[in-house]
Write a sequence for this structure.
């Protein structure tokens, strides 16, 4: 029982292995997986890979996704990942709470001009 309490909870470590046609490979830890894409980050670059194009395996520490690719396709995956990341960051930084925005100031000059015109019209009509 004591040994069991000292263990850390098991957290899978999913990885993406990208093999290029020039014989090189890159191993990147996976950050998120959704219905369309696998998003992985590594020191060599970030990758956004279509889920349907990757083969999945199960390892001791988690899932392993293998993505065979050409060098040009890897560059495209890195560009897509950068685009998705900048889009997410842009949407986070441009968030504005609608209730926090102050309303437009009243056009006091136009209101005062309208009141003056009505008063002037009343004076003219009483004089006639």
């Amino acid at each position: 029982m004591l040994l069991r309490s000292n263990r850390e909870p098991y957290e899978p470590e999913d990885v993406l292995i990208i093999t290029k046609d020039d014989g090189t490979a890159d191993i990147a830890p996976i950050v998120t997986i959704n219905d369309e894409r696998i998003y992985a980050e590594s020191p060599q670059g970030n990758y956004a890979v279509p889920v349907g194009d990757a083969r999945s395996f199960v390892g001791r520490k988690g899932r392993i996704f293998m993505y065979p690719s050409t060098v040009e396709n890897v560059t495209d995956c890195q560009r897509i990942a950068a685009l998705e990341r900048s889009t997410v960051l842009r949407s986070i930084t441009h968030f504005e709470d609608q209730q926090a925005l102050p309303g437009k100031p009243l056009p006091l000059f136009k209101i005062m001009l309208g009141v003056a015109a009505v008063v002037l019209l009343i004076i003219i009509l009483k004089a006639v």
Observations:
- The longest strand covers residues 25-33.
